[in-house]
Amino acid sequence: MSEFDLISRYFATKFPQRPDVDLGIGDDAAVCTIPPNMQLVTAIDTLVADVHFPLTTKPEDIGYKALAVNLSDMAAMGATPVWMTLALTCPEFNEVWLQKFSEGLLEIAQLNQVSLIGGDTTRGPLTITIQIAGLVPSNTVLKRNGAKPGDSIYVTGTIGDAGLGLQAVKQQIVLSKLAKKYTLSRLNRPTPRLAEGQKLLKVANSAIDISDGLVADLGHILKASNVGASLQIDNLPLSNELLESVPYEVAIELALSAGDDYELCFTIPESEILPINSCTYIGKIETDLGLRCVTKTGDIFIPKANGYQHF
Ligand code: ADP
Ligand code: MG
């Protein structure tokens, strides 16, 4: 199969079509129209085999996750994703692998009406790069640098699940069938919180998606905003599957330090009404720099993981 056959078979026709794509796959470049009073928001994320996913990961999950992590960046900005390009490097043109990979990618592209407008296909060690483009009403985008002392800190969903799933994949822990199924789906098919991010526009002072762990990613907000925070660690949202699988202290460590959950962490002024339900209050922004983790009895808790050294 030639490179051109490959592109047309797996990537050219099946993806959602959008009226704002003036010229899609097939020319030297793609052309799209940005609606008036909207800003273009772009991000790019690369997944390298054996670095960002274990070699045993199913191709359909790799396709799904490659877009999911990019959509999560759009969610963190409050943007609506619309177009993507795909740079695919494969060691060989394996038809079964490509079919499954494109199915996983197509599934999440259809869920979110994202058009595949172009890309590049090369031979080499398995690497998937997706560049995502989204739209946001002008001057409303969510950033990391707007957190203010007094803001309440929230996180969507539950955290620590993907970290536990990764431990299971690496055979560092044996999980019940149900906990394994749940945590692996959290690891391989994260849910980008797009609707939540969009509802936070004009309400949140700052937002970020949790890809490296709560302590590290909240740390980016604190640094960019030149503020500190105290975290109520007993408030952290933990799934039943996580709580059933490991001792409470281990669950807290995973929630603080494990990455790959792709939940949103955001801060909003106390005076604002929370525009979403599926989130949990976890602490307060303060003027004192640094991050203080506090238990419900008021004791200071020092996370074991390295993420902490940033502070
Ligand atoms: P060029 O030589 O001009 O870079 P290519 O041969 O790389 O063109 O690609 C031909 C067309 O196919 C282009 O429109 C490009 O965007 C598209 N394309 C190439 N690889 C992919 C891919 N993996 N997914 C989607 N579109 C692709
Ligand atoms: Mg090219």
In short:
33% of the residues lie in helices and 25% in strands. The chain contains nine helices and twelve strands. The chain has helices at 3-12, 59-77, 95-112, 161-169, 177-188, 194-200, 214-225, 240-245, 248-257, and strands at 21-23, 31-32, 38-48, 80-90, 115-123, 127-137, 152-156, 206-209, 228-232, 264-268, 279-286, 290-294.
Description:
There is one protein chain. By secondary structure, the chain is an alpha+beta fold. It folds into 2 domains: 3-137, 60s Ribosomal Protein L30, Chain: A, CATH 3.30.1330.10; 152-294, Alpha-Beta Complex (Phosphoribosyl-aminoimidazole Synthetase, Chain A, domain 2), CATH 3.90.650. Helices cover 33% and strands 25% of the residues. It has helices spanning 3-12, 59-77, 95-112, 161-169, 177-188, 194-200, 214-225, 240-245, 248-257; strands at residues 21-23, 31-32, 38-48, 80-90, 115-123, 127-137, 152-156, 206-209, 228-232, 264-268, 279-286, 290-294. The strands form 3 sheets. The protein has a 6-stranded mixed β-sheet, sandwiched between helices. A 4-stranded mixed β-sheet has the order 3-6-4-5. It has a two-stranded antiparallel ribbon with strand order 1-2. Strand 1 and strand 2 form a beta hairpin. Helix 4 crosses helix 5 (177-188). The longest helix has 19 residues, at 59-77. The radius of gyration is 20 Å and the shape is globular. The relative contact order is 0.16. Mean pLDDT is 95; it is low at 307-311. Residues 7, 11, 25-28, 86, 88, 116, 118-121 line the site of adenosine-5'-diphosphate.
